[in-house]
């Protein structure tokens, strides 16, 4: 029997993650039954759990996948850009991403074991944000009267607030000026300053 290529395995894994994202967003973690996961991915239980040990491992992989994508945007363009993309609907699947993000938040509150597993993964986004802010400070674009850790926490809180706002179905099309204010808050003020630190 021929061995399955790595490209095929990667494509199958991507298919499972994309289908599961929709399923978890629509039904929540508890409601995303194996049957619903099969329907959403178009694959059998055996195919799904060949790639992921169990439902929690699948959900963690999905949440981690989203965190990696966000960390990549943060490293290049800043956390405020992630928020702008959420508002614009420019991200690959904003509604499904929001659903996954909310489900992560719910499970962090109610499931200590999940909280412990997620803590290892969530550090990526914080690290990417902190490193970008440090680079911006080193370049002279970021205010230097507030610790980078504090600025990182500030931006992460704004992101969480935005996610909650959008998840409640509230309009986001008038929030561009709010994000401008957030960006202005972390920027160093001097004559001729430009750039996007957040």
From TrEMBL:
Signal peptide annotation: none
Domain HTH tetR-type: 10-70
Keywords for this protein: DNA-binding, Repressor, Transcription, Transcription regulation
Gene3D superfamilies assigned to the protein according to its UniProt record, in alphabetical order: Tetracycline Repressor, domain 2 (1.10.357.10)
PANTHER family: HTH-TYPE TRANSCRIPTIONAL REGULATOR RUTR, HTH-TYPE TRANSCRIPTIONAL REPRESSOR RV1474C
The entry's DNA-binding region: 33-52
Organism placement in taxonomy: Bacteria, Bacillati, Actinomycetota, Actinomycetes, Pseudonocardiales
Protein name, as recorded: TetR/AcrR family transcriptional regulator
Native species: Amycolatopsis samaneae
InterPro entries assigned: BetI_C, DNA-bd_HTH_TetR-type_CS, Homeodomain-like_sf, HTH-type_TetR-like_transc_reg, HTH_TetR, Tet_transcr_reg_TetR-rel_C_sf
